[in-house]
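Lab notebook, bench 4. The sequencing result for the construct came back, and we need a structural model before the next group meeting so we can plan mutations. Quick request posted to the team channel:

Model the 3D structure of this chain.
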Amino acid sequence: MITKEQILDAQKKWGEGVVKIGSLKDNRSECEVFSNQFLEKLYAFDVGPVLFKPTKCAIEQFRPTQLKALSYFIAGDDRACKEDTGFAIQPWIKVKFENSDIILQESYAIAMGNYFFTGLDNNEVKVEYTFGYKLIEGELKINLHHSSFPYNPNAVSNA
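Done. Here's the predicted structure in token form:
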């Protein structure tokens, strides 16, 4: 049975990984190596479908492959999706999860809530998330990642 502590640990590792990616932005080759390792360790691209809908995507909203997820996180000249600017190389200095709730099952769990990204200027950005975690050979891997900015009624048109 997956435990709440395992989810909290997976979230901590994810946040620390995003911060580390940003810290490596000036060393492109090291950033690429670490980012690929981050995706391989924390996401389930190698075992089945991953439903990945990042926050800052409008044209290619869904990223079903590791290559497209990498493009979202670190962009670059050879990025798979042209709209990407490198979300994780912002850089961020802190990521904090605030879970609304967690559903635990035998080998699958879902967490939903807000996460907060702190930039170099100490400004915090609030983002809503839903992550699905699958237990694979004793490790939790993400196979559902949906992020979006909170609803803004001023941004909605009367169409």
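The two ends are 47 Å apart (CA to CA).
Will bring this to the meeting.
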